């Protein structure tokens, strides 16, 4: 049953998105990272993005729990209970189950990895053949061929998929190997926590133990640590320790090291010690092959003309390419219509239209900030003055100034009809705090990236 649910998972999530009119940003933040971990009797255990923490899990469960259950029932015809957990909690559950039941159950062995991201499911084309070959070589002989391996490329082109494939391969061939996959945002947040709690216990030592006592470190989206001095410093030492002890390091980024402006020179040169490979946008044949692979994995049967229509029109982002197929299938089910080119044209019109660049508005900033802090959007527009509301509101003011062209008084008007001096005060306050508060710096950076992924 797990395979069936997994096969239909994208469709289930897409159905929640369409039925509840969830914005792309909210979908990417909360729902898209959810993964099926296990299905037992009538309980589906779902993993959340570890970066969202416990608060994130409780927010997702509260806000999207029932819509997810309804979509599962609609699509599978069966009523399931769901439990959304963090990967660490799932590991604990699976450890307990394994000790109770032996190792008979065939579970996702590595909850921190997406089970679908393996070399088997990765389509090799002219756009990624070098990155694929280098990844395979590193997976076969960690720390012997290219160290570090630096993979870069635009959004949604398969960097994470390749990194997980390497991790799966190494763990399958050498289960005792200590493999750690993290995003650089997790690395940064854990470092900030460790530094903050330094005086109370030995958490910095624990942090170092975690990151330095491993065989393979995969660090995704390194661009998030760029510009953060203390994180670069810590990463520099982590890198040196691992490299000197002949441990494999694999890094991904949206740009090659030479184009990352705020990267310290000593890190840049280290990143270039090994091999740097890029992933480009796929050509038409590769896009068709990726769609066919997804059709096969999800057990779908889609008219070839529809596949051609998608592959012709969605060119530069594989996540969008796959998402387009999922969206069409979800739509055809909900509307009880056949999957035809006409249906595809209708469903994909926003995605395909040439002017679909998402505008950054105060409302979008409010939406993302309210989700980040788990407070109601209406509170941010309201006159409420409690700190847990006024602080995120000041962050909205700051981000609105930074990410839009609006004047102070326009921002004030859109943010609950406030005076421009109130907005100026809010922006000044956040600007000053940013000088010394690294958690706030990280929050602003992550929020900015989520609001404007370009
Ligand atoms: N060559 C490929 N074959 C099959 N699927 C692919 C391929 N490349 C990318 N994908 C799929 O496209 C989606 C996006 O890929 P992935 O998350 O790895 O991109 P990314 O480069 O890490 O993006 P980001 O820059 O947003 O972190 C995933 O579902 C992945 O499985």
Please render the helix and strand layout as text.
Elements lengths: L1 H18 L4 H8 L3 E6 L2 E5 L5 H24 L4 E5 L1 H15 L27 H12 L8 E5 L5 H15 L5 E5 H13 L6 H10 L3 E5 L8 H16 L3 E6 L11 H7 L3 E5 L4 H14 L6 H10 L4 H18 L5 H7 L1 H4 L9 H12 L3 H5 L5 H17 L4 H7 L5 H17 L1 H14 L3
Helix pairs in contact: 1-3, 1-13, 5-6, 7-8, 7-21, 11-12, 11-13, 16-18, 18-20, 19-20
Short recap of the structure:
With 454 residues, the protein is of the alpha/beta class.
Overall description:
- The protein is an alpha/beta fold.
- It has four domains: 1-96, DnaA, N-terminal domain (GMP Synthetase, Chain A, domain 3); 119-278, 3-Layer(aba) Sandwich (Rossmann fold); 297-303 and 311-353, no CATH class; 362-451, DnaA protein, C-terminal DNA-binding domain (Chromosomal Replication Initiator Protein Dnaa, Chain: A), CATH 1.10.1750.
- 58% of the residues lie in helices and 9% in strands.
- It has a five-stranded parallel sheet with strand order 5-6-7-4-8, sandwiched between helices. Strands 1-2-3 form a three-stranded mixed sheet.
- α1 (2-19) packs across α3 (53-76).
- The longest helix is centred in the first third of the chain and has 24 residues, at 53-76.
- The protein is globular, with a radius of gyration of 23 Å.
- The structure holds adenosine-5'-triphosphate (ATP).
- Adenosine-5'-triphosphate is lined by residues 117, 121-123, 128, 153, 155-161, 221, 254, 290, 293, 318-319, 322.
- Pfam families: Bac_DnaA (PF00308), Bac_DnaA_C (PF08299).
- InterPro entries: AAA+_ATPase, Chromosome_initiator_DnaA, Chromosome_initiator_DnaA-like, Chromosome_initiator_DnaA_CS, DnaA_C, DnaA_dom, DnaA_N_sf, P-loop_NTPase.
- It is found in: Cytoplasm.
- ATP binds at residues 156, 158-160.
- Oligomerizes as a right-handed, spiral filament on DNA at oriC.
């Amino acid at each position: 049953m797990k395979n069936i649910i997994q096969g239909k998972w994208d469709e289930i999530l897409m159905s929640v998105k369409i039925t509840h009119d969830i914005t792309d940003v909210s979908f990417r933040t909360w729902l898209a990272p959810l993964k099926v971990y296990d299905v037992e009797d009538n309980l589906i255990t779902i993993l959340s993005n570890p970066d969202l923490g416990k608060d994130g899990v409780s927010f997702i469960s509260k806000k999207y729990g029932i819509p997810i259950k309804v979509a599962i029932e609609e699509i599978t015809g069966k009523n399931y209970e769901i439990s959304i957990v963090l990967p660490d909690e799932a590991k604990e559950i699976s450890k307990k189950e394994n000790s109770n039941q032996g190792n008979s159950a065939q579970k996702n062995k590595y909850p921190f990895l997406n089970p679908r991201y393996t070399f088997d499911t990765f389509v090799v084309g002219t756009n990624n053949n070098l990155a694929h070959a280098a990844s395979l070589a590193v997976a076969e002989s960690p720390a012997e061929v290219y160290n570090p391996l630096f993979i870069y490329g635009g959004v949604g082109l398969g960097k994470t998929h390749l990194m997980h494939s390497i991790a799966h391969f190494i763990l399958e061939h050498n289960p005792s190997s200590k493999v750690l996959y993290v995003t650089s945002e997790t690395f940064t947040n854990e470092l900030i926590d460790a530094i903050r709690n330094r005086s109370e216990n030995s958490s910095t030592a624990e942090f170092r133990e975690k990151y330095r006592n491993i065989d393979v470190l995969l660090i995704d989206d390194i661009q998030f640590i760029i510009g953060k001095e203390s994180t670069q410093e810590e990463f520099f030492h982590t890198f040196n320790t691992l490299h000197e002890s002949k441990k494999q390091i694999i890094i991904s980024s949206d740009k090659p090291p030479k184009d990352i402006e705020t990267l310290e020179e000593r890190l840049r040169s280290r990143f270039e010690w090994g091999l740097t490979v890029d992933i480009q946008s796929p050509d038409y044949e590769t896009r068709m092959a990726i769609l066919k692979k997804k059709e096969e994995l999800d057990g779908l049967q889609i008219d070839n003309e529809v596949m051609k229509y998608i592959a012709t029109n969605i060119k530069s982002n594989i996540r969008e390419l796959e998402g387009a197929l999922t969206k069409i299938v979800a739509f055809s089910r909900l509307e009880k219509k056949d999957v035809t080119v006409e249906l595809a044209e209708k469903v994909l019109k926003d995605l395909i239209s040439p002017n679909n660049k998402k505008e950054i508005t105060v409302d979008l900033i409010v939406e993302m900030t309210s989700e980040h802090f788990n407070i109601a959007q209406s509170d941010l527009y309201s006159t409420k003055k409690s700190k847990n509301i006024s602080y995120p509101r000041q962050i909205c003011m700051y981000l609105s100034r930074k990410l839009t062209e609006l004047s102070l008084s326009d921002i004030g008007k859109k943010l609950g009809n406030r005076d421009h001096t109130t907005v100026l005060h809010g922006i000044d306050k956040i600007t000053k705090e940013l000088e010394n508060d690294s958690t706030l710096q990280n929050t602003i950076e992550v929020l900015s990236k989520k609001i404007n992924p370009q």
